[in-house]
Amino acid sequence: MLTQQDLQNKLIAQIPDLHNVIITDTSNGCGQSFDIVVVSNTFQGKNKLQRCRLVNNALKEEVAQIHAFSCKCFTMEEWSKVVA
């Protein structure tokens, strides 16, 4: 079973300039459905599809093991406007 910590550790290792990661297990703890927010300036100049592909590639093995996966990707500037 995958945990939020497993996903976070993999993202920290794979996504450069990672500022923040918010992982929510939406399967009530059974590790089969996750919503992820990734904040990194690596996403600068990339569209939404390119950003999600970076995250999906980083979590390729993990995503294959779960039922549902959603990610939202922001630069630090974009994130500061979301949380303001």
UniProtKB/TrEMBL annotation:
Belongs to the BolA/IbaG family. One of its GO terms (cellular component) is cytosol. This is LAFE_0F16930g1_1. GO terms for biological process: intracellular iron ion homeostasis; protein maturation. GO terms for molecular function: 2 iron, 2 sulfur cluster binding.
